[in-house]
Amino acid sequence: MDFSKLISHRFRGFSEFENSLEGLNSALSFGVRQIEFDIRLARCGTPMIYHDETARDGSGKSRYLCQIMARDFAKTGGDFSHMPTAEQLFSDIARHPHKDCALLIDIKDAGVETALYALAKSFGLANRIIWVSWLPEVLYAMNDIEAGQSLCFSHWCRRPGRWTRAIHHVFSADKGHIERPSRRVVVGERSGWFVDGAVRGDLRRILTHVCVPANQIWPDLVTQYQIDGIQVSAFSYTRKKAIESESKRLKLDAYFIDNKILFEEFKPR
User: Fold this and answer.
1) Is 59 a member of any domain?
2) Within the chain, which residues score under 50 in pLDDT?
3) Where would a tag sit more exposed on the chain, N or C end, judged by fewer CB atoms within 10 A?
4) Residue 66 falls within a domain, yes or no?
5) pLDDT tens digits for 171-180?
6) Model's pTM, two decimal places?
7) CB neighbours of 209 closer than 8 A, spacing ≥ 6?
């Protein structure tokens, strides 16, 4: 397994908390070649580094990130107390000596693309970024800002089950086509698209990457994307045997990893 194909998924295994500054710096210092992290918006519009739309406060209550001002996160306690802002995380990346690490930035809330693009440019990171999203709104907007950026669409490629539908807004592509949505702002939502096969049409034309669940992908789908130069990754892996088997069967371009152990197993000696 090529070490450079492994993506640290939310820096899991590199610190106690995922999507944290400690995890970021630990992963970079280890020499990871690709890292992925998530962005959600606080009430004030500040981009925060976190995956879910809700988090536990100091009392254990689940609260929406978009209902709390960024300045109040620390005193809110619980999960909120260790969430960095995008500016803090970008600053740490820019200062770290490991400059060859690709940055997969998964934007969970739409409407903040211009600010994120400007922030990335200000830290000199734009040429290292692959913008990732389950929201086509985000990818169309990023392409409008600057065509030719690396854009990755995450999607379900098999029909989501009852449990997934219970906690997500599930949209369905029309024979692979996803037209530009009319909405431009999406905040505090957990949603995604089911595509029966490969993405087609206008959205496909701007994509450089796709990311799909590891338990849904099959070899012909990988080929359908790679034939047009679209790189394919899958999430997530925790066992060495599983990733070695899948690498032979699927020949993916990258693999999302959920622990540090696999990085230790595959790191060149």
Assistant:
1) no
2) none
3) C
4) no
5) 999 999 999 9
6) 0.97
7) 130, 132, 150, 151, 152, 153, 230, 231, 232, 233, 253
